[in-house]
Specification:
CATH superfamily of the largest domain: SH3 Domains
CATH architecture of the largest domain: Roll
Number of helices: 0
Strand order of the largest sheet: 1-2-3
Largest sheet: 3 strands, antiparallel
Order of helices and strands: EEEEEEEEEEEEE
CATH topology of the largest domain: SH3 type barrels
Strand content: 25-35%
Helix content: under 10%
CATH class of the largest domain: Mainly Beta
Family: Belongs to the YjdM family.
Distance between the termini: 31 Å
Protein name: PhnA protein
Number of domains: 2
Radius of gyration: 16 Å
Oligomer: single chain
Structural class: mainly beta
């Protein structure tokens, strides 16, 4: 049995390590192993419903979006797989079939269950 620290958010004892991060399966909080002592603000991206998104999630577009430089629009219900989270105004980096690489705002997507 490993001696991993409890989750700093919900105090759960069921934390596990994945790719250098500690993760809480109960509340979804992720942090670096040395971070709990520093009190550093965590980079968190939430979808339109407030659900926390993580790298590799699949999301669905909830609103028709105009695509800059294209005559077509990204339609409601478009599914996007394997997203990558980045800091900035458009905080989702992804590839969409028929459109290619693009950045989306998390407020216009919802996480697929």
């Amino acid at each position: 049995m490993s001696n991993l620290p409890n989750c700093p958010e919900c105090k759960s004892t069921y934390t596990y390590e994945d790719r250098g991060l500690l993760i809480c399966p109960e509340c979804g909080f992720e942090w670096s192993p040395g971070e709990e002592a520093s009190g550093q603000e965590e980079f968190v991206v939430r979808d339109a419903n407030g659900t926390v998104l993580v790298d590799g999630d699949s999301v669905t577009v909830i609103k028709d979006l105009k695509v800059k430089g294209s005559s077509s629009a990204l339609k409601i219900g478009t599914k996007v797989k394997n997203i990558r989270l980045v800091e900035g105004d458009h905080n989702i980096d992804c590839k969409i079939d028929g459109f290619g690489a693009m950045k989306l705002k998390s407020e216009f997507v919802k996480k697929n269950g």
